[in-house]
Amino acid sequence: QVQLQESGPGLVKFSQTLSLTCTVSGGSISSGGYYWSWIRQHPGKGLEWIGYIYYSGSTYYNPSLKSRVTISVDTSKNQFSLKLSSVTAADTAVYYCARETRFGVVTYYYGMDVWGQGTTVTVSS
Amino acid sequence: SSELTQDPAVSVALGQTVRITCQGDSLRSYYASWYQQKPGQAPVLVIYGKNNRPSGIPDRFSGSSSGNTASLTITGAQAEDEADYYCNSRDSSGNHGFGGGTKLTVL
User: Fold this and answer.
1) In what order do the strands lie in the sheet with A79-84?
2) Is B49 on the interface with A (CB under 8 A)?
3) Chain A interface includes B29 (CB < 8 A)
4) A85: buried, middle or exposed (CB in 10 Å: 19+, 13-18, 0-12)?
5) N or C: which end of chain B has fewer CB within 10 A?
6) Distance of alpha carbon A69 from alpha carbon A16, whole angstroms
7) Is the pLDDT of residue B7 over 90?
């Protein structure tokens, strides 16, 4: 059973870069059909999709965050990572990593079927 | 990201049926997925595709779609179903979006 675990600093200073890692256990990050994703949730608010990476390295980012986001993968460590630059208080949130699975053969459909527990990141001045 | 709209709050009497809806242009081409989130917990996938439930999700949860609207139906709502529910979809470019979430209260 695949499990995900986020790790990284819980406190980041204003204007610096937030860096988080998601470790995948119980399965290979190099398996096809999975999109390794980051999602965040501001305090008391809804979910915001940040972006994903495929094991091949191809990425897609939320257009509203694209200029500040980098998602990378390290297949040797079975990990993927998030970097968010130039953070402000608006980046204070719970950050989740998740696996999005592509289902189907002829017609594809998708679902984020495995989630990490989430990690709280606070941006301080 | 893909724009999806949900009602902020819905209530249902214990044991009754409730439908939570999600609207967006991307839903004309792509199925929504639905997530349940309880306070302090990570979201859990409850419905994906046309009407598929992951292992462990009760069969009182079902999904449907018509035009630009996707629906999550809970038939015979239980107290433990009280939670926030989010829809998600992607568009043709691979961009994703979540709906704003619906807070379900079971009375």
Assistant:
1) A3-7, A18-25, A79-84, A69-74
2) yes
3) no
4) middle
5) C
6) 13
7) yes
On chain B, the residues whose CB falls within 8 A of the CB of A96 are 42-43
Structure-token pair, residue B67 = 């035009």
pLDDT in tens, B64-78: 999 999 999 999 999
DSSP helix/strand/coil, B96 = strand
A75: which residues sit within 8 A by CB, 6+ positions away?
A: A29, A30, A55
Per-residue model confidence as pLDDT tens digits over A16-64: 999 999 999 999 999 889 999 999 999 999 999 999 999 889 999 999 9
- The overall longest dimension of chain A from CA atoms, in Å, is 51
What pLDDT sits at residue B2? 60
Measured CA distances, A25 to A22, A78, A103 (Å): 10, 8, 21
